[in-house]
Amino acid sequence: MRYLIILPGGSVRNKAWADGAEEAFGSYFDSVHKQYWEHWETGEENIDFSVELKKLQVATADFSDDVYVVAKSIGSIVALFAVQEQLINPTACAFFGMPFSVATELMETADWKPLEDLSVPTIAFHNDQDPISYDVTAAALQNHNQNIQLITRQADNHNYTEFEEMKIQVLAHFGI
Predict the structure, then answer these.
(1) Domains in the chain and their CATH numbers?
(2) Do 56 and 81 contact (CB within 8 A), yes or no?
(3) Which has more confidence, 13 or 111?
(4) pTM of structure
């Protein structure tokens, strides 16, 4: 079986992003786990990594073999931690708008180990004018994990909703 994990960005508007990702990629998989963040319901400002990692672990406990991750923004950071803690063992990942300029604040650490240790084949789309700093993300990937393929797009937002434009690259990366 082939499994897809969808991890959206942190703001509640990313619920629509997760739904769009499922619509774009879900039909290529036997099972899809789309995670909605707890803080969307509680009203807390930021994601609680420990809560979300536990939720992810429980929801994907039966996922084996071919597991793929599609994650946006803070969801990509959750994925990094989940892989490092061996909560998931993906075959490949596709990240969109990795938010390294804000992630270290949210994680309350400057530990790059989750990024450095990632050996899963990964592509990372990032808009060159993304307000969640392209330069910081490009430097983090260059300095901490050159195995992640950075795909620079020309756009001035942090939306990453152009699934049809990126679909061919994602599916090819996933070997589908």
Answers:
(1) 2-173 (3.40.50.1820)
(2) no
(3) 13
(4) 0.94
